[in-house]
Design goal:
The protein is built from five helices and twelve strands. It has helices at about 1-10, 30-35, 65-75, 135-140, 195-205, and strands at about 45-50, 50-60, 80, 85-90, 95-105, 105-110, 125, 140-145, 165, 170-175, 185-190, 210-215.
Length: about 230
């Protein structure tokens, strides 16, 4: 039953399109986004929620443009347009948002300031693919950015170019989504998925669990006590 729901509903992993920003904005560069962080092959991420923390990691070398955008927005390292006020701001993007969409047993989605799937930071980037995406999407816990897909029953007067994502909304998968390889950008992987499952259940019940923040803790050196 879940497989059928995923096939039907992942086609609507859409990110709505708000009015174009009057002032051109661009995603942060990778150097700007990662400044002052220790990065080896991956970068640790803590997605802090009202239901607990979700430990993840992102891979800058695999999808550098998307990781730069995600990390830069989370750290407030670039300008973005707040769709709630239409103001250009520089502050952490994800702090205090909510998880607004879920398919129990399949995915949760967050990163929309408006809480309805139409909010974005005022710019778009292309979908990035990397070797091994198919295998990564087969594993529960894949952290990805969805491609743009128009909202059902709503005409979009200003859609993005084909193959682009809006820029801020992210998905944590709970099941095999390898059928989306090449259509979405896989930026990392998450562990300890009990929190993700709990959030999915609450969203499905009509709640909007809070996304407190997206943080990037420094790695603990080998041999150090935790």
């Amino acid at each position: 039953m879940i497989a059928g729901a995923v096939v039907a509903l992942t086609s609507s992993l859409w990110l709505g399109c708000a009015r174009e920003a009057e002032q051109p904005l661009n995603a942060p560069s990778l150097a700007q986004a990662l400044a002052d962080l220790t990065v080896l092959d991956s970068l640790d991420v803590a997605i802090d929620t009202a239901q607990g923390s979700i430990p993840c990691e992102v891979f800058p070398a695999r999808t550098p443009r998307a990781v730069a955008m995600f990390v830069g927005l989370a750290r407030g390292r670039g300008a973005w347009r707040d769709p709630r006020t239409n103001e250009v701001v520089r502050r952490p993007y994800y702090r205090g948002l909510s998880f607004f969409r879920a398919i129990p047993g399949a995915l949760i989605q967050a990163g929309c300031p408006l809480g309805n799937g139409t909010g974005h930071p005022g710019y778009r980037i292309p979908v990035e693919s990397a070797p091994g995406d198919h295998e990564r999407l087969m594993q529960p816990g894949a952290l990805l950015l969805a491609r743009y897909h128009p909202a059902p029953n709503r005409e979009d007067p200003n859609p993005p170019p084909a193959g682009h994502v809006i820029g801020s909304q992210f998905v944590i998968a709970l099941t095999d989504m390898s059928h989306l390889a090449g259509e979405v950008t896989v930026i990392g992987a998450c562990r300890s998925l009990d929190v993700v499952r709990r959030i999915a259940g609450r969203v499905a019940a009509g709640e909007r669990p809070q996304l407190n923040d997206v943080r990037f803790p420094e790695p603990v050196p080998h041999g150090s006590e935790r």
